[in-house]
């Protein structure tokens, strides 16, 4: 929800729309990112994340998952290669005023780059690696993730847990019907970024490609709730999933179609509520 809701890669065709990346980062951090809080909490509770944990967060984005781990006493390091605006927000959250902040954030680090750039000579290995950006939403959205995990694994202790996340079955994710709007509007570019349903073994396949050993999994309810339709549209657009739809049509058309797709989930008080289930996999380093 790293983090973005899916791992994104440059499109192979078409022209990416021009966006206000600072505004998008704010919309992500203020509206959309919190939707995955139940996932973060479930993983941290299951793995007993606390003062003895050294955590490496891949694709950390604006840092909410890191902040939650730091609040539990963990020493956190976040790394991200493609989201400088979000990383700036992560630094604000974890390093207030450029200082070390509270005791819970004393060991926080934010690194712009690849997992290997998070290496700290002379420091203990990481005890936990997380990759919370859910896969299983768009064709090819796991491309590159195996490589990131393989690069991060040597930085972790032997047998350390590595957490991957993914969308649950389409029939249990109300947001699926809304995400299909992106594919329909971007039909000329469909071959590059086509919606597809999550598959049962998506996470296991990525773990195997990265040389990791699956060791347990779980499912978590992560409903998407918004104050109103405008907030829902802004939040969903902040994920980047609709960029190709905007490029193929225009922003006003995407806003209109999104608003219509959200109508079944609008409640009497004007709020928008979409139940979803996400899955996580715990794998182990060699």
Features:
286 residues; alpha/beta; seven-stranded mixed sheet; two-stranded antiparallel ribbon
- N-to-C SSE series? HHEHEHEEHEHHEEHHHEE
Q: What is the number of helices?
A: 10
Q: Major β-sheet, in short? A: 7 strands, mixed
Strand fraction equals 15-25%
Mean pLDDT: 87
Approximate shape? globular
Helix content: 25-40%
What features would you describe in this structure?
With about 290 residues, the protein is α/β, with parallel strands linked by helices. The chain has helices at about 20-30, 35-45, 65-70, 85-95, 145-150, 175-185, 200-210, 230-235, 245-250, 250-260, and strands at about 55-60, 75-80, 110, 130-135, 160-165, 215-220, 225, 270-275, 275-285. The strands form two sheets. Strands 3-2-1-4-5-9-6 form a seven-stranded mixed beta sheet, with helices on both faces. The protein has a two-stranded antiparallel ribbon with strand order 7-8. It is globular.
């Amino acid at each position: 929800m790293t983090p973005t809701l899916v791992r994104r890669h440059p499109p192979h065709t078409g022209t990416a729309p021009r966006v206000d990346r600072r505004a998008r980062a704010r919309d992500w951090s203020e509206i959309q990112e919190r939707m995955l809080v139940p996932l973060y909490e479930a993983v941290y509770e299951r793995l007993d994340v606390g003062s003895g944990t050294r955590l490496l967060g891949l694709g950390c984005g604006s840092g909410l998952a890191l902040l939650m781990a730091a609040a539990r006493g963990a020493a956190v390091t976040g790394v991200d290669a493609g989201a400088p605006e979000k990383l700036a927000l992560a630094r604000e959250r974890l390093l207030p005023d450029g200082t070390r902040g509270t005791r819970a954030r004393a060991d926080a680090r934010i690194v712009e780059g690849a997992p290997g750039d998070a290496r700290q000579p002379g420091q203990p290995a990481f005890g936990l690696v997380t990759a919370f950006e859910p896969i299983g939403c768009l064709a090819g959205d796991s491309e590159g993730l195996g490589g990131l995990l393989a690069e991060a694994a040597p930085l972790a202790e032997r047998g350390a847990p590595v957490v991957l996340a993914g969308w649950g079955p389409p029939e249990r994710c109300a947001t699926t019907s809304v995400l299909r709007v992106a594919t329909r509007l971007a039909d000329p570019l469909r071959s590059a970024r086509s919606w597809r349903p999550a598959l049962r073994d998506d996470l296991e396949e990525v773990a195997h490609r990265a040389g990791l050993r699956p060791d347990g999994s779980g499912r978590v309810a992560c409903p998407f709730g918004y104050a109103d339709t405008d907030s829902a549209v802004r939040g969903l657009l902040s994920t980047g999933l609709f960029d190709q739809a905007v490029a193929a049509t225009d922003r006003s058309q995407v806003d209109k179609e999104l608003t219509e797709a959200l109508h079944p989930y609008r409640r009497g008080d004007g709020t928008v509520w979409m139940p979803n289930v996400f899955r996580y996999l715990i794998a182990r380093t060699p």
